[in-house]
Amino acid sequence: ILAIGSLCALAVPTWTALDRYDAAWADMRAAADGLAALGESARVDQPLVLTAMPPNAPGVPPCNPNAWFALAERPQQHADLPTVSAGFVTVAVPGAESLLGDASAPRAMLRHGSTLAGWEPAGRGFRRTAPLPPLPDRLALVDEGEGRFRVEEPLRADAIEVLRVTFEGAAPSRTTCRLRTPVKDLPDSLAVVVVEGAAVDGASATVEIDLTHAMGPLSLATFDLPIQGFELAWDGGAAIVAIDARTKLDELAVELPVGELRGWGVLDGLTAPDPGRGAGVRLMLQGPHAAIPVPCEAGTPVAIPAATRAEFDAFARISRNRRIWFWFEAIGTGAGGAARSAVRSFAPR
Known about the structure:
This protein is of the alpha+beta class. The chain has helices at about 1-40, 105-110, 190, 215-220, 305-320, and strands at about 50, 85, 115-120, 125-130, 140, 140-145, 150-155, 160-170, 175-180, 190-195, 200, 205-210, 225-235, 240-245, 250, 260, 280-285, 290-295, 325-330, 340, 345. Helix content is about 20%, strand content about 30%.
């Protein structure tokens, strides 16, 4: 009787654990099928970028935020579906911890022409965020007064990369930007961007609101929610005299050889550009497993740690596509300096 009772007591949690394990593998099968269906939009130079996948499941190897690209493996073919993992934006990944909640890397790949794909929370499959359609560099906003600005025609929520606001009077030290969408009462994590500081020039001050690092616009675009405008709030008694909505960051100029780039030697001795306006700069490396930032000093040669190279080499071999994407990115404050170089890629070997 004791033995039978013990077996019964063990049977229930065992079956529960097996059901969870089987459900996790079912998610993986659905994810692999979903990637195959999206394969037509991916190219070697413009890979599919996975921004969100099924939750991690213990004991199921593909449920790992820096191994999602493995779901795109295609045995007995020359190369896998060109796919990179951007799980570091939602889950801490070794080497990319500083990018948790930072949308700048998938934004850069999107601007480069890549397609983004995210797993629906309900588990029905992938939602695809296609490359951005052609847009003018600057967009006109309609001033509705009291810090409210309207986009004349609703735009995809990630269409605007930076807002430059000119104030007259005392420079604000803190500016809050809230996105306006058809959905009311959006949580602050999706709708609000807070900026500290301003650039002062005589009687006027400029605040630069860099939206590329915020997860909100990218998340809203994934679910096809448009942006209708912005609401700005700031401290001090300054008044807004102009607002400039830009669909592209300023471009950082980087001199690179023409043609296909091969080997780490492409980056050896490459001089980090100077974004100006007191902003710092970092080199972003995007491999199949994650993006990892490399701190740089403007105007000096780039130095990539040997351990970082070894990690990227290993994952490039595993993915069989053997590509690493890179770009420089300005790191600034509300005083300005938001900029990015063009995304390029090279074969590490």
